[in-house]
């Protein structure tokens, strides 16, 4: 029955009391003899009852039966130097004694990589650790598998959206995104697979972590064998302990070195330029030490990397050492991400890591002496009155700024350059970041809770209950999308929609697509809408870029244009050269290929057929446009005058985004997003025929729902035209 050696050795399901009696093993058994000598650095022999005997440790890995690799010894030494390693006994004891423990420690103290493993080795059978970010889940799981000298995906694995590198039986320590754990709870409301759940990076207060905390609070009384650890950077401590009924708090912060904070004297106009100059200044004036700088997104990061690499080539002539410039953001392939942990190359070069917020607490990079903090990050903002959710570059909080500065003091004293004035820090940055639940649309939360069997949304124990307005908006949206019925119960469509880890409108588009016989196109479109902009438009070659874009244009639809770009990319074998010739972002496109594959298999799993009218079918794009409307039915706009459109119901005056391929000002359009820049724009639009509105299965366009006003008049006009046309053809 059991196939691998490690299962025989440490998969002691029957022998270990945990899964049988629900009580974890006693503390003494875990720690009787602390490891003393190397290579007893090995996890030691498992005596068959969960007791790890370090004295009798051999050179063989108990999990695989193989001799340890050289890398193992190297990593073992490093992990033993981490602050949490000293505290491991305290941690294991506390987790055994209490149902919930809050564990807090400076970034880099070893919480994420070590604590789940301690608990596994202490006898817990199935340990799961959540991460708010995909990139962290993958990176950390990879690291832990290396540290334990096992194959990733076997004993140690990870599951993130669209990617499962774990084994249903053999994986006993799993890193997952918080969203994925919620999804698991759909099938298994009690999360009964796990006897130990770690909610990591809890201070980030993502939507999914907040929902998980509430869910787990519900589960704890019914699952006496479940133990929970809430891990966070040193922030918001009282918040967590209070929420979990005075759970004990453990602080495992290691030594931090002082960080000298330097502000700008004058406000900075162009932070990109300022960042570049600061790197140059450090490199030319300051002693050796690696640099970490924070930017807001992939494009900015890649652009900065190019500038810095160029600079690096020019300084070589002046006798200065080179820079080793490394980007870090979530869409980056794993092998590239891992490079930030490696020493600079060539040796002696100064490493410069150009990262998103992911480096703030989720990933620790050792050896950083200089941090450059422009004070911005992308964050989600939701306005319930316009129903607009946008990802905006906005100032970070003081808490975030402190975390960022802390990255410079991990291994020795460091310097943090804040590219804003001290006055701005005190008066313009809010003290802490708002939890996501207060900043985003709640459609997915509502679907999730419904699917988890939680009906009383009002009394769900959120750490920070969302605004009633936002909750009502979500219920309304889900009702119009047909996911909830009049009694606020999940409909079959809603049940299906809850399975998709995507925005509810994209989800409805996908679920409806077979009906329009264009699910192949819809899946491609959904993938393209999930990645950053694929069109590259360098300022100095804008005309050339625009001319190239013309090749892909379907003139009444940005959506169809995106599908064309994707198909051309596939036809050209994902060729990077072809992409650069055509001003396309090949990384984003590759990412889309990957997402598409996952979405397609998801559709199949759910019994939704993949179908297409065929690439030469004359009605191909009509079908797609109708299908987009079926999903984004609440996001239509009608033409009012000159360049102006008005959004239905909310009646916001907007323009078509300058990047749109739709130039002929159709009477009605459906749009993907609302963007606020210098003006109000709708971006990624398609022409629609107004009569389609009345053929949708929704109450959204019932005239009785509209007060007198521009929207009503526009709909009446559309309805009138429809009647005339019908009579005309009758
Ligand atoms: O979670 P916390 O911030 O407390 O620390 P961690 O992520 O467990 O990191 C502990 C150590 O492992 C740090 O020194 C990291 O640099 C190192 N690490 C690494 O080298 N490579 C990874 N992929 C992950 C962690
Ligand atoms: Mg961590």
UniProtKB/TrEMBL annotation:
It catalyses: ATP + H2O = ADP + phosphate + H(+). Its EC number is 3.6.4.13. GO terms for molecular function: ATP binding; hydrolase activity; RNA binding; RNA helicase activity. GO terms for biological process: mRNA processing; RNA splicing. Residues 1-66 are annotated as: Disordered. Gene3D superfamilies: 1.20.120.1080, P-loop containing nucleotide triphosphate hydrolases (3.40.50.300). The keyword Hydrolase applies. Coiled coil: none annotated. InterPro entries: DEAD-box_helicase_OB_fold, DEAD/DEAH_box_helicase_dom, HA2_WH, Helicase-assoc_dom, Helicase_ATP-bd, Helicase_C-like, P-loop_NTPase. Residues 267-453 form the Helicase C-terminal domain. SUPFAM superfamilies: P-loop containing nucleoside triphosphate hydrolases. Residues 92-253 form the Helicase ATP-binding domain. The keyword Cell membrane does not apply. Pfam families: DEAD (PF00270), HA2_C (PF21010), Helicase_C (PF00271), OB_NTP_bind (PF07717), WHD_HA2 (PF04408). Keywords: ATP-binding, Helicase, Hydrolase, mRNA processing, mRNA splicing, Nucleotide-binding. This is RNA helicase. It comes from Cyanidiococcus yangmingshanensis.
């Amino acid at each position: 029955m059991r196939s691998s050696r490690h299962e025989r050795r440490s998969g002691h399901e029957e022998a270990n009391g945990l899964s049988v009696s629900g009580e974890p093993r006693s503390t003494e058994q875990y720690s009787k003899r602390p490891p003393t000598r190397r290579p007893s650095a090995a996890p030691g022999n498992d005596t068959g009852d969960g007791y790890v005997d370090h004295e009798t440790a051999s050179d063989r890995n108990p999990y695989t039966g193989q001799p340890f690799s050289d890398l193992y010894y190297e990593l073992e030494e490093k992990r033993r130097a981490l602050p949490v390693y000293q505290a491991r006994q305290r941690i294991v004891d506390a987790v055994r004694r209490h149902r919930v423990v809050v564990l807090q420690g400076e970034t880099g103290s070893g919480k994420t990589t070590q604590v789940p493993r301690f608990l596994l080795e202490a006898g817990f059978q199935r340990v799961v650790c959540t991460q708010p970010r995909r990139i962290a889940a993958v990176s950390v799981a990879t690291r832990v598998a290396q540290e334990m000298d096992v194959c990733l995906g076997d004993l140690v694995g990870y599951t993130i959206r669209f990617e499962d590198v774990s084994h249903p039986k053999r994986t006993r320590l799993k890193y997952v995104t918080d969203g994925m754990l919620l999804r698991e709870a759909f099938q298994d409301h009690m999360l009964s697979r796990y006897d130990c759940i770690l909610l990591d990076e809890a201070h980030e207060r993502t939507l999914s972590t907040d929902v998980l905390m509430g869910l787990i609070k519900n589960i704890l009384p019914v699952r006496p064998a479940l133990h929970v650890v809430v891990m966070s950077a040193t922030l918001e401590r009282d918040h967590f302990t209070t929420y979990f009924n005075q759970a004990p708090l453990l602080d495992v912060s290691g030594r931090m070195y002082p960080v000298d904070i330097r502000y700008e004297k004058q406000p900075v106009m162009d932070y990109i330029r300022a960042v570049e100059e600061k790197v140059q200044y450090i490199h030319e004036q300051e002693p050796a030490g690696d640099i970490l700088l924070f930017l807001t997104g992939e494009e900015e990061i890649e652009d900065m990397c190019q500038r810095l690499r160029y600079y690096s080539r020019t300084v070589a002539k002046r006798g200065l050492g080179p820079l080793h410039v490394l980007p870090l953001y979530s869409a980056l392939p794993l092998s590239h991400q891992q490079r930030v942990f490696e020493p600079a190359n060539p040796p002696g070069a100064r490493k410069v890591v150009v990262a998103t917020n992911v480096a703030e607490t989720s990933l620790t990079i050792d050896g950083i002496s200089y941090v450059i903090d422009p004070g911005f990050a992308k964050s989600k903002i939701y306005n319930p009155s316009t129903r607009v959710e946008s990802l905006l570059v906005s100032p970070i909080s003081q808490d975030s700024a402190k975390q960022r500065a802390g990255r410079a003091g991990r291994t020795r004293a460091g310097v943090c350059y804040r590219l804003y004035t001290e006055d701005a820090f005190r008066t313009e940055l809010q003290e802490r970041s708002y939890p996501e639940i207060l900043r985003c649309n709640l459609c997915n939360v509502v679907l999730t809770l419904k699917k988890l069997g939680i009906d009383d949304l009002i009394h769900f124990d959120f750490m920070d209950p969302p605004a009633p307005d936002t909750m009502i908006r979500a219920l309304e949206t889900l009702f119009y999308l047909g996911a909830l019925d009049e009694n606020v119960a999940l409909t079959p469509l809603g049940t299906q929609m809850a399975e998709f880890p995507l925005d509810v409108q994209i989800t409805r588009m996908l679920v409806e697509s077979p009906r329009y016989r264009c699910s192949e196109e819809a899946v491609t479109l959904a993938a393209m809408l999930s990645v950053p902009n694929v069109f590259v438009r360098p300022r100095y070659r804008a005309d050339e870029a625009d001319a190239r874009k013309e090749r892909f244009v379907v003139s009444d639809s940005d959506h169809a244009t995106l599908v064309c770009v994707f198909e051309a990319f596939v036809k050209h074998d994902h060729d990077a050269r072809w992409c650069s010739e055509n001003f396309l972002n090949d990384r984003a496109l590759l990412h889309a290929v990957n997402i598409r594959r996952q979405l397609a298999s998801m559709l199949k799993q759910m019994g939704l057929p993949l179908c297409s009218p065929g690439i030469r079918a004359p009605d191909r794009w009509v079908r797609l446009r109708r299908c987009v409307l079926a999903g984004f039915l609440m996001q239509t706009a009608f033409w009012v005058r000159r360049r102006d459109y008005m959004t239905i119901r909310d009646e916001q005056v907007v323009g078509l985004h300058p990047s749109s391929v739709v130039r002929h000002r159709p009477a009605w359009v459906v749009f993907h997003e609302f963007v606020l820049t210098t003006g109000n724009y709708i971006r990624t639009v398609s022409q629609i025929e107004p009569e389609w509105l009345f053929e949708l299965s929704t109450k959204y366009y019932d005239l009785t729902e509209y007060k007198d006003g521009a929207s009503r008049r526009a709909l009446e006009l559309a309805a009138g035209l429809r009647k005339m046309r019908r009579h005309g053809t009758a």
